[in-house]
Design goal:
alpha/beta; Rossmann fold; 6-stranded parallel sheet; 13 helices; 14 strands; 43% helix; 16% strand
Length: 364
């Protein structure tokens, strides 16, 4: 047994014993971060231990609601032999990412309505942690899993695709599609989003429309929608209006740090854009903040439009006009796709695209 497996086993055993000896049904356990500090291990290890406890019927886990004790007495061997687990899992990087959390909630709501048991587990942004879980998924005895990965390099895409293909249980992907992988995937219709927000600006008389993004490789469909709207309107695109940064380094503790730096980089040159399209709200809000810090008026001098419609869109210094993504619906559709895949009844296209529409606020 390697060190990480040994630590997981130790944490699981201690928590299981404490639940039986020190807790009552309805008690809430400490948070994952508090338990990680107590045991001197990663949050990912704690998340796996809690998922095992949920799998064994000791606790119930809900995003932001915490981990609640639902049983304190051991199951007898006779009763245990009669249990037939029908659980589905959702694996995601962090509860601090609002869009992903809304997707998980949609998944859980659909599962509750279908009277289906669910396990949720967070892995952080470390691709190796995601791969480790997929490699050990049989230990959790789930029938299938939805996975929302964070893949930042071509090498990570390749490794993750190989692991998904060889996984012993059905896998549905949330938020992305992997080249060469036929597993069902559910996510935003990026082309529609890019086209819709660009067309929104065009209909309001804006012609010099820029494009600002990081993680540019993952935004290909969105950028294609932007290009299509510009071509359709007969507007010649200018490379000066665009900044396509290839890399991204997610930081759930300070999520606006990198977007703000990129926004200042964009505005440091005289690009001549009248409006800018951003494929995520975090970057759009950062662009508004950077523009205001440089003495620009939004929307008078620069119109900004985003995509997501998360909380910071309405609390931005200038409330953000954005494309609303129905993440709860995406979560529901991942559950439906996984349930059908497990049952062998999934039909249709392997990629399920979900569309939204523009929410008009003050920035554009």
């Amino acid at each position: 047994m390697n060190q990480s497996s040994s630590k997981l086993h130790t944490v699981h055993e201690i928590l299981c014993r404490e639940i039986q000896e020190n807790h009552q049904v309805g008690d809430r356990l400490p948070t994952e971060h508090e338990l990680a500090a107590r045991f001197g291990c990663s949050v990912a290890t704690i998340s796996k231990a809690l998922s095992l406890l949920a799998h064994d019927g000791w606790v119930e886990r809900r995003p932001r609601a915490g981990t609640k004790v639902i049983r304190i007495a051991p199951i007898t061997p006779a009763a245990k032999s009669e249990i037939k687990l029908e659980a589905l899992a959702f694996v995601y990087p962090s509860e601090k990412h609002e869009a992903i959390l809304r997707t998980v909630r949609g998944f859980q709501d659909a599962a509750i309505e279908a009277d289906c048991r669910v396990l949720t587990i967070t892995t952080g942004t470390d691709c190796d942690k995601e791969l480790e879980f997929l490699g050990r998924i049989s230990e959790f005895a789930v029938n299938g899993a939805v996975v929302h990965p964070v893949l930042l390099t071509p090498e990570e895409h390749t490794r993750f695709a190989q692991k998904v293909i060889s996984c012993p249980v059905p896998i549905v992907l949330s938020g992305m599609r992997l080249a060469g992988v036929d597993n069902p995937s559910v996510g935003i219709d990026g082309f529609h989003a890019g086209y819709t927000v660009t067309n929104y600006l065009i209909r309001r008389g804006v012609k010099k429309i820029g494009f600002l993004t990081n993680n540019a490789g993952a935004m290909e469909k969105y950028y294609g929608g932007y290009q299509w709207a510009m071509d359709e309107a007969g507007i010649a695109m200018n490379p000066k209006w665009e900044l396509l940064e290839a890399t991204m380094h997610p930081n759930y503790e300070d999520p606006q740090k990198e977007p703000l730096a990129l926004a200042h980089q964009y505005l440091s040159e005289d690009r001549g854009a009248e409006g800018v399209v951003c494929p995520c709200d975090g970057l759009a809000v950062a662009l508004i903040q950077a523009a205001l810090e440089r003495g620009l008026r939004v929307p008078e001098d620069l119109k900004v439009i985003g995509t997501d419609d998360v909380a910071i869109a309405s609390t931005s210094p200038v409330p953000l006009t954005t494309y609303h993504v129905p993440y709860e619906e995406i979560g529901r559709k991942t559950f439906e796709a996984l349930k059908a895949t497990v049952a062998g009844t999934f039909t249709g296209f392997s990629r399920v695209n979900v569309r939204g529409d523009v929410v008009v606020r003050a920035s554009a």
